[in-house]
Amino acid sequence: MTSSPRERLIIPILAPFYHAVAQPFGWVALRLLVGGFLVIEGWPKILAPMSQVGFVEAMGFHPGWLFSPMLALMQFFGGLMIMAGLLTRPMALANAVMLVITLYYHVTRPFGDALLTPEGIAFLQDNLQYLTQAGQRRLLPDGGAAFLELVQGKAEYASIFWAASAAIIAAFGGGKYSVDRMIGREF
């Protein structure tokens, strides 16, 4: 992390606050956020470690029986380690790579008919009570194409955000308040 030299600050008196409080605790907050969401995403995979076999094999990672549990372990335990700041760089790097692969997946395999089928649109057109007026305007005129673009864009933007956040943590390490720093050793 960078320091905030007094001569570069518009309000120089804030330098000690930035150095002692804002930067270290901001870094902890980022680690807790990224690690926490990895734990949340990884927990269902821990409960069913073979649930991703088909997905990882469709992505080209064989054998799926090996990579599916590895994905579960990396997300769940890697998230916990990022939160604690233990082996922060390798855990964040591994998860950043996984998140870049997730981004690639979203870009190369848009949701399309898997999310919104012509039959589903026909059902909604026949049963307008299931949609608000705004939902009818947004979803029905083009058969859901604009809605799918919105969902697809959110999936891609979320993947970019999480991959970049994990990569930044991998680059800078655990920070001042981390187990890595407490033991005096960083990867």
Automatic annotation (TrEMBL):
Any single Pfam family the record assigns to this protein: DoxX
Subcellular location, principal: membrane
Gene Ontology CC terms: plasma membrane
First and last residue of the signal peptide: none
Keywords per UniProt: Cell membrane, Membrane, Transmembrane, Transmembrane helix
Record-annotated membrane-spanning stretches: 21-44, 64-84, 91-107, 160-179
Compartment(s): Cell membrane
Domain of life according to the entry: Bacteria
Topology within the bilayer: Multi-pass membrane protein
Family: Belongs to the DoxX family.
Descriptive protein name: DoxX family protein
